[in-house]
């Protein structure tokens, strides 16, 4: 079992008559997260957002990062908890992949069976299992290594060009 790095629970009180809803933002692993709901008839869609721009080092550089998160959405039945609709998915988030959409159920069923006082209660727990980011110094080391490799490749290209121009067999490393 993977231990949880950090988690937060969002409790949403959504009126099905509204076309969409976005939760308050909560910070998990230093990144702001929010949950959105949309009435995409005939389906209720849930969207998990993380805001990648939040991960900056003190010098203002963007820090590449990824995290593995478990998303658990529970649509609570107002009277019978054994009828709760539950979805659990594991997802990888990064600045390049910071939004996930989930079809959550038939909107008509949700309106008819899960609404109490005009609202639907949805609990969403985001558990970040692993979080990894690269420091600026690590990036600088990688750039330096790539620069050395590029210089070596340029030398090999020059040797190939000379061999082609002189039609001589060349010695490869």
TrEMBL record:
Domain of life from the UniProt record: Eukaryota
Keywords of the record: Coiled coil
Transmembrane region(s): none
SUPFAM superfamilies with a match to the protein in the record: TRAF domain-like (SSF49599)
Coiled coil recorded as keyword: yes
Coiled-coil spans in chain: 136-163
Keyword Coiled coil: yes
Listed Pfam families: MATH (PF00917)
Gene3D superfamilies: Apoptosis, Tumor Necrosis Factor Receptor Associated Protein 2, Chain A (2.60.210.10)
Positions of the MATH domain: 19-128
Protein name (record): MATH domain-containing protein
């Amino acid at each position: 079992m993977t231990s949880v790095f950090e988690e937060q629970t969002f409790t949403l009180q959504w009126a099905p008559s509204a076309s969409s809803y976005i939760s308050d933002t909560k910070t998990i692993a230093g990144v702001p997260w929010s949950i959105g709901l949309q009435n995409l008839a005939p389906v209720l869609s849930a969207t998990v957002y993380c805001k990648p721009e939040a991960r900056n080092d003190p010098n203002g550089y963007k820090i590449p990062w990824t995290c593995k998160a478990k998303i658990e959405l529970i649509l609570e039945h107002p009277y019978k908890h054994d009828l709760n609709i539950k979805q659990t998915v594991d997802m990888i988030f990064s600045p390049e992949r910071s939004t996930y959409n989930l079809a959550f159920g038939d909107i008509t069923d949700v309106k008819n069976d899960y609404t109490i006082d005009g609202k639907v209660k949805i609990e969403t727990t985001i558990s970040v299992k692993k979080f990894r980011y690269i420091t600026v110094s690590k990036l600088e080391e990688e750039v330096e290594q790539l620069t050395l490799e590029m210089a070596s490749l340029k030398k090999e290209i020059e040797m190939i060009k000379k061999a082609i121009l002189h039609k001589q067999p060349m010695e490869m490393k």
